[in-house]
Automatic annotation (TrEMBL):
It holds the Pfam family YqeY. InterPro entries: Asn/Gln_tRNA_amidoTrase-B-like, GatB_Yqey_C_2, YqeY/Aim41, YqeY/Aim41_N. Gene3D superfamilies: 1.10.10.410, Uncharacterised protein YqeY/AIM41 PF09424, N-terminal domain. Transmembrane segments: none annotated. This is GatB/YqeY domain-containing protein.
Amino acid sequence: MSLVDTLNGDLKAAMKARDKQSLSVLRMLKSALMNEKINAGHDLTAEEEVSVLSRELKQRRESLEEFQSANRQDLVDGVKAEITLVESYMPKQLSDEEVKQVVAATIEQVGATGKGDFGKVMGAVMPKLKGQADGKLINQTVKSLLN
């Protein structure tokens, strides 16, 4: 079953439960997936669906940071709930240690020796970890292991 089918089922459940916040987030996720499908001109692959979800999750995390810095607790609570809902559709996230192992193996694989090889390592590791780990975490791990 595709992600859109899952979202449709969850949309119906949210409508029946009169859960306005979940309904709003689910509609937005479905809309983002449909827009991406139209832009791509074909049905989305699982990897493309994860990419869309990752982008939506990143937007919410950035909003959360902004709201926290502005001391807007009313908005922070809502965004945290949205993040939890979007994360429920994401693949299982890797732990810090698992990310470190994948990055270390990739560094060894590409033969990176220092900071100058950062781009080469990131280019090789991002496709491996797409949707499974936060980009900031991957970036920090690569920097720390290259030093």
